[in-house]
From TrEMBL:
<keyword id="KW-0479">Metal-binding</keyword>
<feature type="domain" description="Phosphoacetylglucosamine mutase AMG1">
    <location>
        <begin position="164"/>
        <end position="265"/>
    </location>
</feature>
<dbReference type="InterPro" id="IPR036900">
    <property type="entry name" value="A-D-PHexomutase_C_sf"/>
</dbReference>
<feature type="binding site">
    <location>
        <position position="489"/>
    </location>
    <ligand>
        <name>substrate</name>
    </ligand>
</feature>
<dbReference type="InterPro" id="IPR016066">
    <property type="entry name" value="A-D-PHexomutase_CS"/>
</dbReference>
<feature type="active site" description="Phosphoserine intermediate">
    <location>
        <position position="65"/>
    </location>
</feature>
<dbReference type="InterPro" id="IPR016055">
    <property type="entry name" value="A-D-PHexomutase_a/b/a-I/II/III"/>
</dbReference>
<feature type="domain" description="Alpha-D-phosphohexomutase alpha/beta/alpha">
    <location>
        <begin position="52"/>
        <end position="83"/>
    </location>
</feature>
<dbReference type="Pfam" id="PF02878">
    <property type="entry name" value="PGM_PMM_I"/>
</dbReference>
<dbReference type="InterPro" id="IPR016657">
    <property type="entry name" value="PAGM"/>
</dbReference>
<feature type="binding site">
    <location>
        <begin position="352"/>
        <end position="354"/>
    </location>
    <ligand>
        <name>substrate</name>
    </ligand>
</feature>
<feature type="domain" description="Alpha-D-phosphohexomutase C-terminal">
    <location>
        <begin position="455"/>
        <end position="508"/>
    </location>
</feature>
<dbReference type="InterPro" id="IPR049022">
    <property type="entry name" value="AMG1_III"/>
</dbReference>
<dbReference type="Pfam" id="PF00408">
    <property type="entry name" value="PGM_PMM_IV"/>
</dbReference>
<dbReference type="InterPro" id="IPR049023">
    <property type="entry name" value="AMG1_II"/>
</dbReference>
<dbReference type="Pfam" id="PF21405">
    <property type="entry name" value="AMG1_II"/>
</dbReference>
<protein>
    <recommendedName>
        <fullName>Phosphoacetylglucosamine mutase</fullName>
        <ecNumber>5.4.2.3</ecNumber>
    </recommendedName>
</protein>
Length: 526
């Protein structure tokens, strides 16, 4: 009773603005920071309930990832470092939107529905990125996921400190790069764009742990520029150009983190000054090809699959299925969907095209690999392959996509295989593509099916898209309502950039006309 009385008193200090409704979206609550005070308070309450319910430590990450500096957000992290369940996302939305005088009733409803024992102790880890300009307890989103998982597995996953994270990753990285002979300083050099965010600070902090095995040249380190402004993974992916403030030499390997360092994309410019993007699809291809080769060398019969979304470039899907003979599956947009699908395989490699992803190894697969490491009868080639697999598992943050961990995996794979950024890029050629946004009065009129690749409403939209696609070669297009912005996203790809642009424009017009477009009609790109 006293607990509820206290909640009731304190909630008055964090009133909900009248008429404001917010949704626990693709990655938690995310909006202008001035609307979030009551949300932060209420999510604190919900995290405590989730902790009591699971009898585990729960994470609360305060971040708005790649959004502009004035936005903020919050999301909950479940015991194994994964996103909170759909059921609890629902509770989060309800709790966020009840009026002040119904808050206690809503809390009591959740407690009753979930049969929560309120005398259980609660444990919550809170992390935040650099948005609050308060340099205490700052972590990247994936570092918090890692620590929550370590805490709940009693150290099996690693030690639940930032130092433990750096140690685990750097050790695994050393073991892998030992297999890359004669690495030159040039090969160890990587230009990193920190998006003026937390990733830059954490990269600096990690540098001493990596000793001379990597030569990081950090730009957009937060010392002067604005968070995510003209820099960061989202800017580079969507604009298909280099961030500001980076001094790129011809052919030099470069990468960009996003604002909370859970995404990464690579790129370089060639001798003609042409920009080449190595996005999430290229990353998934590089890593899955490397793992598949190791499995063959180790004589392990484990099923490996790549999980993508509708935004995956058609060339990547074709290469993985037809050349690599890897199982490919497609889910809805949003990491939680990909993560879930990847759990179905021995090894599930998942990446969104924008560079958010990781690799999951099933418990059985990890056990087989660990046992084989100890097997005295295996020959040298086999031994080398299983040891590489073991260290790769240790280098990967399996709880969530992690820019720092993904970067080290990519650097290790390129080093072991003696590949440059150009070699990696040449594995397959991306189909030219274009992403556009259309504003409509209510984006919920668009309903999709088949992992968001087909629209079932409004009537006639899919038929129109189908007939437009037929006009172009190697073309594909789909539309879906965004889960993080009030827009409809349009994607198109085709054999040339002109065709992709023109198809994207024609489909945007169809959305504008059939789904209640507002403002000016979409204009052609050229
Ligand atoms: C096309 C695209 O990049 N969509 C992004 C974006 O989701 P939308 O639902 O498309 O707004 O934000 C999500 C959360 O960060 C991320 O998971 C997703 O990949
Ligand atoms: Mg992010």
């Amino acid at each position: 009773m006293a607990q509820f009385e206290e909640v009731s008193q304190k909630s008055k200090l964090h009133p909900k603005p009248e008429g404001l409704t917010l949704q626990y979206g693709t990655a938690g609550f995310r909006t202008h920071a001035k609307h979030l005070d009551h949300i932060m308070f209420r999510m604190g309450l919900l995290a405590t309930l989730r902790s009591k319910k699971t009898k585990s430590t729960i994470g609360v990450m305060v971040t708005a990832s790649h959004n502009p500096e004035e936005d903020n957000g919050v999301k909950l992290i479940d015991p194994m470092g994964e996103m909170v369940t759909a059921m609890w996302e629902g509770y989060a939305t309800q709790l966020a939107n009840v009026e002040q005088d119904s808050l206690l009733k809503e809390l009591k409803d959740i407690i009753e529905k979930e049969d929560i024992n309120m005398s259980e102790p609660a444990s919550v880890y809170v992390g935040k990125d650099t948005r609050l300009m308060n340099y205490y307890g700052l972590v990247t989103t994936p570092q918090l996921h890692y620590m929550v998982c370590c805490c709940n597995t009693h150290g099996c996953y690693g030690s639940p400190t930032i130092e433990g994270y750096y140690q685990k990753l750097s050790q695994a990285f050393f073991l892998l790069t030992q297999n890359a002979l004669n690495r030159t300083d040039d090969q160890k050099r990587l230009l990193v764009d920190g998006a003026n965010g937390i990733g830059a600070l954490k990269m600096r902090e990690m540098e001493p742990f990596l000793r001379s095995e990597m030569q990081v040249v950090l730009s957009n380190d937060g010392s002067s520029g604005k968070l995510n402004h003209m820099c960061g993974a989202d800017y580079v992916k969507v604009q298909q150009k280099a961030p500001q403030g980076m001094n790129m030499g011809v052919g030099e390997r470069c990468c960009s983190f996003d604002g909370d360092a859970d995404r990464i994309v690579y790129y370089y410019t060639d001798s003609k000054g042409c920009f080449h993007l190595l996005d999430g699809d290229k990353i998934a291809t590089l890593i899955s090809t490397y793992l598949k080769e190791l499995l063959i060398q180790a004589g392990l019969n484990l099923q490996i699959a790549v999980v993508q979304t509708a935004y995956a470039n058609g060339s990547s899907t074709r290469y993985l299925e037809d050349v690599m003979k890897v199982t490919v599956c497609c889910t809805k947009t949003g990491v939680k969907h990909l993560h879930h699908a990847a759990q179905e395989y021995d090894i599930g490699v998942y990446f969104e095209a924008n560079g958010h992803g990781t690799v999951l190894f099933s418990r059985a697969a990890q056990k087989q690999i660990q046992e084989l490491v100890k097997d005295p009868n295996s020959n040298d080639e086999r031994k080398r392959a299983v040891k590489l697999l073991e260290s790769t598992i240790n280098l990967i943050n399996q709880t969530v996509g992690d820019a720092i961990s993904d970067m080290l995996v990519i650097e290790a794979v390129l080093a072991i295989r003696g590949m440059s950024a150009q070699d990696w890029d040449a594995i397959y050629t991306d189909l030219p593509n274009r992403q556009l946004k259309v504003t409509v009065s209510d984006r919920r009129v668009i309903d999709t099916t088949d992992a968001e690749r087909r629209a079932v409403s409004p009537e006639g939209l899919q038929d129109t898209i189908d007939s437009l696609v037929k006009k172009y070669k190697s073309a594909r297009s789909f539309v879906r309502p965004s889960g993080t912005e009030d827009v409809v996203r349009v994607y198109a790809e085709a054999d040339t950039q002109e065709s992709a642009d023109s198809l994207a424009h024609e489909v945007s017009l169809a959305v504008y006309r059939l789904a209640g477009g507002i403002g000016d009609e979409p204009k052609p790109l050229h």
